[in-house]
Every structure is written in C-alpha cells, then in structure tokens.
Amino acid sequence: MAKFSGLVGYVKNIETKPGQFTEQTTTRKYYGDVIRNTRRLQSADKLNDNIVVSNEISIVADAFANENFYAIRFVEFMGARWKVSNAEVLRPRIILTLGEVYNGENS
To answer: Residue 32 and residue 6: Cα distance in Å, rounded?
Structure first.
C-alpha cells in the first residue's frame, strides 16, 4: 500500500454581509495511505476526454477533519487537485474517493 502526504481542501460558505455569502477555502496537510489507485477516461462532448480517477485515500483524521468532513472539496495528489466525490468517516480515519480534476478557486 502506497503512502499519502498532501493537502486536503475544505470549502465553506461564509456570510460576509447580511444575505451575501462567499466561499472560503482552507487547506490542511494530512498523512495516510492510498488504498486504491485507478483511472479511466470519460467521453465528453469536448475535444478531449476527461481523466477521472477513482482513487481512495485513507487519511488519519484530526478533530478538525472529523468536525468538517462535509466541507472537504479537493485533495492534492500527484501534482494536481482532485475533487472529492465521497468522504466516509471510519474513525480515526476518513476514506476519500477522488473523481475529476478540481477547477475551483486556487488559494
């Protein structure tokens, strides 16, 4: 089993003015294991196919991760940011399933 060390991104909606919300991104470094390492090409109505990974990464969760697992949006893995399509809490770990490349805000 391969080891993982990288950033996990949390995105929360914060009310900046009454009735106005903006996304706030927070990244934290975690360690764990790569449980599954796969990829597939997804055909699209575009010139090039999308690369979709179905990797599963098991991180050792701290109190912040356990309280905010619903806000996990991306993981930096192999030099790119990947969307987290599923987060499963199995204390003391969280299993993150990755999907497509994350195209959100870079902070």
So the answer is: 9
